[in-house]
Amino acid sequence: MNREISIDAHELTKTYYLYDRPIDRVKETFHPWRKIYHRPFDAVKGLSFTIHKGESFGIIGRNGSGKSTLLQMICGILQPTSGYVTVNGRVAALLELGAGFNPEFSGRENVYLNGAILGFSTAEIDDLYDEIVGFADIGDFVDQPVKTYSSGMYVRLAFAVQACVEPEILVVDEALSVGDVFFQQKCLGRMRQLRENGTTLLFVSHDMGIVRELCESSVYLHKGRLAYCGPSHKAVQKYYNMDHRQVSGSSGSENGGAPVASSLTGNEIWKQDISQSQDGADAEILSVSMEDKDGFPSMKATIGEQISFTLYYRVNKSGPIHASVSIKNRFDNLISCNGTYINNLEPQTLAEGAVGKIVFKVQCDMEAGPYTLHFSLSSPGDRPNRAATVDETPWLGPLSIEWDYENHKAPFLGMFNLPVFCSFGEDTK
């Protein structure tokens, strides 16, 4: 990889002053003894990282973590309170819906307007115009005022302009979430092509599957601070585990004695942090690993394939144990909760100190998209469907279920596959 630096951020901080009432701004300005009425709020604080030319770089974090503020400083829209960011190359940014568009202008006029903003001459845009309009695929609406566009049409045209001019640095901030799945696929294909051609890609998204697939490295922001910077799959894991138990490479016992690594595969999607083990719990989950249909570690599967999860747990107090796995979709809907109890298995009872193993085989009969997973141990209750939770993991993932809807017949339509049996016949009456 070319190690030329595209973006270099050093101790980047953006501080805002918050006031309880609007009048407090005036009081602070004219107070004879300069009384302070504000309280400082650091939207981002002390961020340092380097992005090299041709690198695809993700920025992830929960809402309010400072992602958009960081992008605006990189693009020069906001000035940092302290620190600095150096950008080497022409930047094309898709920061928010409609940014850079004049709503009274037609789509055609806005193409030329955006091209001029990016430093292209009219003749250069003339050469690119057919490619831009073809990529946007909005038909005759290109000659209509953009104020009449839907959000999807807005983002189609905006992305087409930014992507077809082949910028040196392309910045995309969650804008693609308003497009349909086919246009998203088209955009992702274009971004991969730009990356292969040497464009530096800076990508913000809440879709962790896309971040893992598209970005080599990522930063994870937590409350405006840099929580992690490194390979994207590790950044995503940090994202899902923050505020829960942290991922840990340790495999020793809680007493620092013999390791339990003989029971661990090294392919874990989650592993217990020994320092946060549950005091007094009857049993503790040690790790969870996933394998695809061919037995390889993976967090991807195609609709209809069977995947397997292996959960290891340690018994602290001998007693009956059930286990379950829960799955949620991207809309936070519980798709399934199933396990040993639902499958009519007798609870497992092991001796104190033993390490138990539970295998879940899941048929992926749900629609394509990202899913999160949750595993738990429980002791049987006195009544049906009642149990006491003994230990549980945080929500893990993302598990990416995939299907090429554009080129292959869908095995079903809807959120999940409900078996339906059909037959043809003829009424001879």
Automatic annotation (TrEMBL):
SUPFAM superfamilies: P-loop containing nucleoside triphosphate hydrolases. Keywords: ATP-binding, Nucleotide-binding, Transport. Pfam families: ABC_tran (PF00005), Wzt_C (PF14524). One of its GO terms (molecular function) is ABC-type transporter activity. This is ABC-type polysaccharide/polyol phosphate transport system, ATPase component. The keyword Metal-binding does not apply. Signal peptide: none annotated. InterPro entries: AAA+_ATPase, ABC_transporter-like_ATP-bd, ABC_transpr_TagH-like, Bact_Polysacc_Export_ATP-bd, P-loop_NTPase, Wzt_C. GO terms for cellular component: membrane. Residues 24-248 form the ABC transporter domain. The keyword Transport applies. It comes from Desulfocapsa sulfexigens (strain DSM 10523 / SB164P1). Belongs to the ABC transporter superfamily.
